[in-house]
Write a structure and sequence with these properties.
By secondary structure, the protein is α+β, with helices and mostly antiparallel strands. It contains three helices and seven strands, in the order H-E-E-E-E-E-H-H-E-E. Pfam families: PH (PF00169).
């Protein structure tokens, strides 16, 4: 996975949309860190939410694992079940795949309503990553906004 280190540093200095102190254990057995340190100039680390799965674990916890390496799992412990649900939903919506599917869904809705492709003005309408047929064909359903559509 690629990322821009300067951009990541700049993002780490912006106010967070969600923040909480929670327990975290990384993929190595026995390693762990408690909470976050917002006063540091450098982030402690980052998890790129690309091709990942966020699932509830034991009560009050969830994990993030990656499709190419499901054994590499990060576990988080929240203060309550409600906080856990909020984090799971926020992390799922922050994933690249969710944002991409949302873009494709709304692109197609705008195209149906206006007859024009809203991405044409940016010169990116023909890129494969913005095409509906480049989504995995596994019959999964995706919930975007208040609409529930099967992406095929």
């Amino acid at each position: 996975m690629r990322y821009n280190e300067k951009e990541l540093r700049a993002l780490s200095r912006q106010p967070a949309e969600m923040a909480a102190e929670m327990g975290m254990r990384g993929p190595k057995k026995g390693s762990g860190e408690r909470g976050s340190r917002p006063c540091l100039a450098q982030p402690l680390g980052a998890l790129l939410l690309e091709r990942c799965r966020v699932v509830p674990e034991e009560p009050g916890g969830f994990s993030i694992s990656f499709l190419e390496d499901p054994e590499r799992k990060y576990r988080f412990e929240c203060c309550s079940q409600e906080q856990c649900k909020e984090w799971i939903e926020a992390l799922r919506q922050a994933s690249y795949e969710y944002m991409r599917r949302s873009l494709i869904f709304y692109r197609n809705e705008i195209k149906k309503m206006t007859g024009k492709d809203p991405l044409e003005q940016f010169g990116i309408s023909e890129e494969a990553r913005f095409k509906l047929n480049s989504l995995p064909r596994n019959g999964r359903t995706a919930c975007i906004g208040s609409q529930l559509d099967t992406l095929d």
